[in-house]
Amino acid sequence: MVVLIICFLLQGIGPMGSHGLTAHRIFHQLAATSSAAAQMDSRLAEYFRGITLYRAGQWAQAASIFEALLEKNPEFSLAAGAAADAYRKLERTDKAQSYYALAARLSEEKLRRRAQWGLNLDTDAVTADLMYYRYRMGQRDEAWALLKSIKPGNRENLAGPTAMLLSARGEFKKARAEFCRAFKRDPRDYRLLEFLAEARAAGRKLACPPKQTPEKPTRAHALIIGIGRYRDRGIAQLTHPVHDALCIDEALGNPRYSLFPGKNVVVLLDRQATTSAIRKELRQLGEKAADLVMIYFTGRTAWEDKTAYWLTHDTLLDRIQTTGLSGPVIANFLTRIQARRLAVFVDSRHSPASTRGASTLSDFFSSADERETVFITASTKAMPAGKLKSMERGVFSPYLCKVLQGKGDRNRDGLINIHETWSYMKNRAGQTGRDQALAIRGSYTEGFVISKNPLMR
């Protein structure tokens, strides 16, 4: 019985005084429960049949169905609104406006009845319909006033008509955000789709970015290397590499942001980061099946005979070829890593062993498979080791750490991909005047995600 009463209130069946329900009328209807329920099912079935015809472009047939429904149930506001939409598509403006006006009046009556009965049931949906009808009638100010009369916390289901009103007011950025919220809730809403088509025809971009649905890495591994202290006294010491590496490690250890299980993150700092230790970890990464592998190196690099080297804790400058890690050696380890996605970040400080014409690590790397790989590298200006300030930080490490803490989610989808990572780091580095050394190379897609934004999940 309760359900039937609610349905009567929703559809506005029967008078109360001249326009509403009386107690006598309600109980009179309850006496025919089965019959009324059957009629209601029949009306809804006809309504959705009309909607199906409308979506198929058969607007005249749809309009006939909606008008027939209104003849049997003059207070069926949804049928009035759908009839108006059909006649608008048929370019019969006068008839469309007449039905929009009827639908608006019936929706206002629904809201009045709910308020009188103290019912909060479905009021947001009715309000959204009323705003839409007023929008189509050109009564934008009235629709806007209705929106502003509703508390912000109660506007969740009003995103569609709100987008239309904001677009009419020229606030396209806000309109796009509201449109995307509405579209996410119901991507098949024909009113939203028609509004999108109208916006495109007018040269306005309201379409949402394609939804990113990357497979969440279930097998993600990370190797973090930070070296600021060197056994060779000819290599100037650095302070910030360890600090930056620890920041990266802390971010990867927080499940709110990280895609990497804590047990799969290996950190090598200063004395731990010897040539043999790094080789061992790179070799082990090649022995593991993985969805995502991230390698981060911060410390000094050098070049000898046009070959790039990572300087490890126990590298000796006078024997760099045998004690350092050369680009070809590192590339050989990387080719053995079977991850579908590989990200390598190298934020380095040059040392005096540098020579002109040196190549970057990514120049040495090649792979026959179709996996996604990306190299983001940066280096500070080369200068004598004894004069390089020990407090100088890497070019992008602080900003990479921010990305791994959930920053940089430009499209607000809760996932931070390589494109967003690069944009965030380069823009921030550029604000300090140090973006000239940043470089990105590789083959990757929008689905190459390395972090999460917990505020949007």
Which properties best describe this structure?
457 residues, alpha/beta, Serine Threonine Protein Phosphatase 5, Tetratricopeptide repeat, Rossmann fold, 8-stranded mixed β-sheet, two-stranded antiparallel sheet
Oligomer: single chain
- pLDDT below 50 for ≥5 consecutive residues: which ranges? 1-34, 351-359, 364-368, 381-391
Q: What class would the helix/strand composition place it in? A: alpha/beta
Counted up, domains total: 2
The SSE string, one letter per element, is HHHHHHHHHHHEHEHEEHEHEHEHEHEE
Any idea of the CATH topology of the largest domain?
Answer: Rossmann fold
Count of DSSP helices? 18
CATH architecture of the largest domain: 3-Layer(aba) Sandwich
Q: Roughly what is the average pLDDT, rounded to an integer?
A: 80
By DSSP, the count of extended strands is: 10
Q: Kindly provide the radius of gyration, computed on alpha-carbon positions and rounded to a whole number of angstroms.
A: 32 Å
Shape: elongated
Biggest sheet descriptor: 8 strands, mixed
**What percentage of residues falls in helices of 4 or more residues?**
40-55%
- Return the CATH class of the largest domain: Alpha Beta
